Amino acid sequence: MLVPIRCFTCGKLIGDKFTEFESRVKGGEDPAKVLDEAGIKRYCCRRMLISSVDLIDQVLPYYNKKSPAL
Predict the structure, then answer these.
(1) What percentage of the chain reaches a pLDDT higher than 90?
(2) N or C: which end of the chain has fewer CB within 10 A?
(3) Which of 8-12, 38-42, 61-65 has the lowest mean pLDDT?
(4) Global pTM?
């Protein structure tokens, strides 16, 4: 998954917090509580983590391998 390294709006470093955020939320914890504990207080940064979507599984079926040059 390609997670943004920095917030698009303010430039704060958020990429290093994504794996912990994702694992704890999948474990059943409240996303707001996890973000608060990680020290992410700005709405713009919270949006970056909450709205991240893994699109690679949706794109792969349309990938065509390059055919060798003739």
Answers:
(1) 64
(2) C
(3) 61-65
(4) 0.72
Q: How do the domains of the chain map onto residue ranges?
A: 15-62
6 pLDDT band (50/70/90 cuts)? very high
What is the C-alpha separation between 58 and 37, in angstroms, rounded? 32
Residue type, position 26, single letter: K
From the list 1, 3, 19, the residue with the least C-alpha distance to 60 is 1
Token look-up 């914890």 returns: 29
SS (H, E, C) the chain: CCCCCECCCCCCECHHHHHHHHHHHHCCCCHHHHHHHHCCCCHHHHHHHHCCCCCHHHHHHHCCCCCCCC
Cα separation, 45 vs 9, in Å, equals 8
